[in-house]
Amino acid sequence: MAKKPSYEELKQKLADLQSEILERRQVETDLENELRKFRGLYDLAVAMTSDRSLDEYLQLIVNKCRQILRSEISYIALHDEVQDDFYKHTLSGIQTEAFRNLRLPFGRGLGGMAARMRQGYIVNDYLAEKSFDGPDDQIIADEGIISGMAVPIQTGTKNLGVLYVFNRTKTAFSQSDLDTLFLIANLASVEINRKQAEDLLRESERRFRFMVETTGDVIYRLHYDSMTYDYLSPGISNLTGYYPEEIKTLGFSNLVTRIDLPGKEDVSAEVIRKDRLAGKTGEYRADYLIATKTGTPKWLRDHSFPWFDDLGKLVGAVGILSDVTGYKRAEALVRQRTAELQRSNQALQDFAFIASHDMKEPLRKVISFGNMLRQKYNDSLEQTGNDYLNRMLDAAERMHSLLTGLLEYSRVTTNPEPFREVDV
């Protein structure tokens, strides 16, 4: 017959049973809390897929933080890179204006430590915490903050901000709570990064639109397989009179009446097309004479570069079309004026040759008769007469030298003699 347990044994078994029941209840409570947090995270993730602004997303996050982690205060402080501090951007549950406007220098306070160390922290009593240099204790006390957590909002090595939760009563936040806060901070990081990327994209698009809409040039992208443009900036209508859709239908090549390449004029479009398809054309420059919609001729300059796909295959070209009609007119005027100047110079050379040749004949007679006078009547002339005769002959000789030089210079067309000082 089995021995009956003693009173003490029964008492111990009852105590053990109660302890086991309490443990199971605690486990059930913990599981219920984890399940509640999981459901809250799931609801938050679903809500984050809706179309909202960044401010609405962040407000949703701090509201959900209070609900999921049963906190009285939650807020997001973003990093101001210029002042290198944190300012409260999105908040929920804050009561005092002083705490709402409090900015936290990088590295100070609970959030500053979380950002600097790039990890989350839990505090049971904020004002009694000695592990960090906190902000104004009076402001913290007036807000009633006692327990809380902070985790960094980060992407790669860049710190975007800090996510906080606080209670005004002493609360034993767990590692599981901190892990949950980290998950929520990751959602905030994704949204902040997405918003920043969208802002950068919008700014890039704005600058691109400003460039293509205000410049007189046309940006294009040409597919070689069909030799059609899949993009033409709106400026094409100013250059040709045709809208981009009309160009795509009509075909830009049908507007071109002549193509000039550097060093080559009136080149066949078919030769250029074959070279492009064969990959023989790298950086490409050409001038096109086109007929605009009104029939007015216009010169366009094309400057493009090869366009390759992700596999490195040549698929087309990206380039710019510019109106160079004025430049071409100026270039033609320079050629015309140069030709006129050459003709005028030739006429001047011809005149100088004829004039100098015709003037040398009477000058030779003056010199010849002057020498005869000197030989025959040198003794009969007084000193004054001889002086006049010598001056006349010297002047005639100088004139003869000048005419000889002018005659020689008029014959020079390509390699003229350099200028030098002469005794006149």
In the predicted model, the low-confidence regions spanning at least 5 consecutive residues are: none
The CATH topology of the largest domain comes to Beta-Lactamase
* Mean pLDDT level: 84
CATH class of the largest domain: Alpha Beta
Sheet having the most strands: 6 strands, antiparallel
Q: What is the CA-atom radius of gyration, in angstroms?
A: 48 Å
Find the CATH superfamily of the largest domain: GAF domain
Q: Give the name of the CATH architecture of the largest domain.
A: 2-Layer Sandwich
Individual helix count: 11
Share of helix, binned: 40-55%
Structure characterization notes:
This protein folds into three domains: 33-199, GAF domain (Beta-Lactamase, 2-Layer Sandwich); 216-329, PAS domain (Beta-Lactamase), CATH 3.30.450; 337-413. The longest helix has 53 residues, at 325-377. Helices cover 52% and strands 20% of the residues. The chain has a six-stranded antiparallel β-sheet, sandwiched between helices. It has a six-stranded antiparallel β-sheet with strand order 8-7-12-11-10-9, with helices on both faces. A hairpin with a 5-residue loop joins strand 10 (284-291) and strand 11. It is built from eleven helices and twelve strands. By secondary structure, the protein is an alpha+beta fold. Helix 1 runs antiparallel to helix 2, helix 1 (7-47) packs parallel to helix 6 (175-214) and helix 10 runs antiparallel to helix 11 (383-411).
Name some characteristics of this structure.
424 residues, alpha+beta, Beta-Lactamase, 3 domains, 6-stranded antiparallel sheet, 12 strands, 52% helix
